[in-house]
Every structure is written in C-alpha cells, then in structure tokens.
Write a structure and sequence with these properties.
This protein is α/β, with parallel strands linked by helices. The chain has 19 helices and 20 strands. It folds into two domains: 32-50 and 205-279 and 393-442, FAD/NAD(P)-binding domain (3-Layer(bba) Sandwich), CATH 3.50.50.60; 67-204 and 450-605, FAD/NAD(P)-binding domain, CATH 3.50.50. Strands 2, 3, 4, 5, 6 and 18 form a six-stranded mixed β-sheet that branches. A five-stranded parallel β-sheet has the order 8-17-9-10-13, covered by helices on one side. The chain starts with 16 loop residues before the first helix and ends with a strand. It binds NADPH dihydro-nicotinamide-adenine-dinucleotide phosphate.
Amino acid sequence: MTTTPAATHAAAPPVDKAALLARYIAERDKRLRPDGNAQYLQLKGRLAHYLEDPYTARVEREPKTDHVSFAFVGGGFAGLVTGARLVEAGVTDVRLIEKGGDFGGTWYWNRYPGAQCDTASMIYMPLLEETGHRPTEKYAHAPEILEQCQRIGRQYGLYDNALFHTEVEDLRWDDAGSRWVISTNRGDRFTADFIGLGTGPLHVPKLPGIPGIESFRGHSFHTSRWDYDYTGGDPRGAPMSRLADKRVAIIGTGATAVQCVPHLAAACRELFVFQRTPSSVDVRANVPIDPEWFASIATPGWQQRWLENFTANQAGGTAEEDLVQDGWTDLSRRIRSRIMQLPREDLTPQKMLAAYEDSDFEKMNEIRARVDSIVAESQTAQRLKAWYRQLCKRPCFHDAYLQAFNTPGTHLIDTDGKGVEAITETGVVVAGVEYPVDCIIYASGFEVGTEYRRRAGFDLVGRDGLRLSQAWAEGMRSLHGIHVHDFPNAFFVQPTQGANLISNVPHNLTEAGRTIALTVRHALDGGYRQVEVTKAAQDAWVALLLTGVGRMIGAPDCTPGYYNNEGQNPGPAARFNVGYPAGATAYFAYLDGWRKSGAFEGLAFR
Ligand code: NDP
C-alpha cells in the first residue's frame, strides 16, 4: 500500500436526472411495506436457538457481588477503547460485561467466510499504534480484527475482570451510595462507581417474517452464528468442503451477503441467492500492506493523523492529501470538486445540494455500468443493479461478489422487491416457484429500528427512578452523545449527537473513550463522587444540534432499509438522531478543545 495524490475525475457523460429519479421512486414504491420493522421476527421462543453461540462453550462461574470502579456494558470496540483509556488513566479495575464468549462484539459474532472491514484497517482497527500491530491488508479480514480486540484486552489487563456470556438485565443508580447497581442473567449483583454503555446498534440478529419459516426441515442459521461444523471450512478462508454436495439458499443481499456469497458460490453444489433489493457494489481494491511502507509511515501519532485525514476528506473538512483513498473519500472528493466548480454566486445550499445529487447520480451510473462489465448473463446483470442514491443503503465494495454470479451453479433469484414468498419444509418459494434446498442461510441483518430497551435487554434507571426510555421518550438528549442529565456517572459510547461519523464508527468511539477517561480521572483526583451534565448544558447542546441540516443518510424518499426506518415515518424523536452541525472534523476539533481546556464545561462535579 502506498499513498499518492488524490485522483481527479474526468468529466462524466450527462445524466438524465428526471428519468433516474422516476426509476428510483418506482423501485422504492415496490418495496414499501406498511409493517416496517414489524415484518422481522425477533429471535425468541422457538427461534431462540438461532442466537446460540457456536464459537465458545459457556463456563459456569459464581455470581459476582463485589464493587468495581468502572463497569462497561459491551466488550466490542467501544468497551475496549474506553477500557484501555481508563487503564492508561490509572483506573485499573474496569469490568467489561459481554454477552459473547470473548471480546470483539461484532467481530466476535460475525465470522462468516469473507468477513472483512469495509473501512480501511489503518483507521478502522482501534489502538493500532498503542498495540504496535501492523494490519496485514488494506481491508483486514475478520480473524485479524478479532485478534486485535483480544490483543487490546490482554495488553490493558481487561480480561482479568471481564464477564463473558453475561447479559445485563438491570442497571440502577443508587444516589445515596453514588454508584450503580448492576444485575445480570448470571445472578450477578455488583456495584460500580461509574458505568459505560457500548452496546452498538447492530448486535441483535433478526429473521425475515416469511410465512412457513419455522416449517423448514433442512439446516439453517443466521450469518452472525456461522455453522462451520455444517459447512466445513473456517473463518480464515479454508474451503467449505462439506457444501460440495449441498443446495444452499442465502436470503438477503446486504453488506454481509456481498462478502460471503463469493465463498459460498465456490463451495456449494448449487447456490440460490434470494434478493429483495440489490446492494450497490463498488470496487474494493484490497491490497496487502507492505511492512516496509508501514514502517516508513508509522511514526509517533500516525494513527491519529490518519484518522483525522480520513475524516477531513470524508466528512466536511479540508485536506490536501488523501491518505486512505477509497470509495468513501472518492465520493466526498467528487462532491467537493463539483461544489468548487460552482460560480461564487451559486454557492447556495440549494445549488450545493444539487451538486451533491449530480455527483451521486454519476457515481451510481458508474456502479451500474460496472455490473454490466462483470456479469455475463444480461438479465442477471439487470437485476443486480441498484436504483437508489448511494447513501440510501450501506454502500458495498467487493471485487468478487458480482463475479460470483458467473459461477456455474450460482443462481440469482430476484424477488422484484417483494421478498421471499414462503418457506416450505423443503425449500424457498418465490413467485410460486419452489427452490428445494438443503440449507438456508439468513443474511437478514440486525434489529435497528426497534426499541432501545428491547435491543439492550435493560432500561437504565437513573436519578429518582427515571428510566432512560422516559428521559428519551421524545428523542435522545445528551451532551456530546456521551453524558445524559439525570444519569450521573454514566457514559454513552456511540456516534449520535457527537461526530455522527458513520463511515468510520471507531473514530467516534476512541474520542469518546478519551473524554470519559479524562472525566473519570478528574472526578477521582478531585474527590468527587458524582459527575453529571447540567440540564442547561444538555439543552443548549441539543438546541445547537437542531440547527443543522438533519440526517444526510437514509432520507425518507430512499428505498426502505434500516437506514430510514424501513421507509416508515420514524416520528418526531428521530430528528434528534443527528451529529454536530459543522461536521465530524469540526466536532473532533471542538471536543479536543473541550478536553484541553480542563474546564469540563457543562458537567457538574459533586
Ligand atoms: P442488512 O440489513 O443490510 O441486509 C439484510 C438483507 O436481507 C437485505 O438484503 C434485505 O433486503 C434482505 N431481506 C430482508 N427480508 C427479506 C425477505 N423477506 N426476503 C428477501 N430478502 C429479505 O444486513 P447485513 O447483515 O447485510 O448488514 C447489516 C449491516 O452490518 C450493514 O449495513 C453494515 O453496516 C454492517 N456490515 C458491515 C460490514 C463491514 O463493514 N465489513 C460487513 C457486513 C455488515 P432489503 O434490502 O430489501 O431490506
């Protein structure tokens, strides 16, 4: 991997915007369903077995009834980076509570063949500089990312206190004792001076509500619980030899399916890919990272420089150089270059939005043309084309997905936006035709738009018995997305109401981790028992957030998906799910200044 100056783009042919928009709307309308999120099945009762952990055996242990300085819910990136920063700040009794059997979060569960990060490893994998790990590829595969999680856990001693295969059931503030009381499904009932929450948005798998789904007599599993005993192979890419005589269905064509379909196509006797909405699949161009090149750039502070450079290129900053150079920065560069071509008097929000739209149309035309250039069978190629704006759904990047449809034995079964009609004892039905299969793999995603309480498994109980669901009944309220009034000594580690940088979520988390460690250190050094955002500071922050342009991704006119609440009106509360109006770069600079000032403005220490 090397860095070169940012590429410039040749002028693209003119785009018939009206015709494209009409097509986008027609395709969206086909997919709209009145049941929205209710179309999906929760994995409980007879479906609960889909949640079982295939990777690690559960170990019996005594319930915990002790006290720790800091308890963190979630052992993924959020918990790991916060835990690491706390340890660096001298807070060593940090307890991470994790429902999986090890650290890793997303990367613990998602071990499907081909899983890899979609944002460059150099900025996606947390704490590379601190751990001294050199990513082996521009886009690392899942086992390497899981190992990085374990490395962080080991290096910072986070395993010592961790509770795995443990789900928090109740978190309750004890004001008299200035501490949180934590209860879990393993009978634990312990206390902590401070808590952190990093449960992530995508950790509860869901199944499509297809009639007959429970009647299937073959084998089936969700992609986040890959059954290598059944398929053969392993997450490192060993061939799935046990599928050689199998007919396999995969339902869903989102980011997960895009990564695992090529591996299935190579392994199965026959593969049926059931598609409701095609993903946009742009070039991946993964390359190994050259150790010599890495040594030349890995000077002190390198990862922070890369993080800031990506964010500046991608999210509203200015940067001369583009270190990462990928699909994310390409899209932003195109938009910027169009806006810069506008005459001075045309620099109005409307014209800038039109410039944004133009570059999106152009980009999507390229992505659709790419399908034609790769997929041999023309009808299949037509059906693999995405008709929506690129950020309506999670953009995908892959150099083998479209090619997989040229493999003999791999069939695209397009449902024309309607979804699978039925599942029988022996197969999958679309448009009245049954496709008999031995195995169904559900690449059907995760719960996003459902209630926080349902996904988290608990509802935080703060000061005077106030529940988080009540505090946020009319929308999220926080300072920096981290501190919430009436919930003292609690910290949220997530992007919303902060930078809201969706293209590189870990950047949001590492910045939050820093802020939390500094705040806790300050509380401890000052002998304070409680730290809480004042109502005035929280109100002012929320008011500032609402001055922005609102959500840029997942607009209501987009094709349905989890980005836009399945095309249903998300209600007035959703307008609070935004980031800092001036953009991610400005937010990180602001937060850095907030930390450096040492004033902890907006927080009350008691
Ligand atoms: P998604 O929610 O993106 O995809 C689910 C798929 O199932 C969609 O194609 C959906 O179609 C389809 N589906 C749902 N119901 C039916 C039905 N009744 N019939 C047929 N198809 C159906 O889940 P993924 O697991 O793919 O991805 C979730 C997210 O996880 C991504 O958006 C991304 O944020 C993250 N991810 C990141 C990766 C990375 O960074 N490397 C890799 C993989 C995932 P429709 O689109 O019409 O709803």
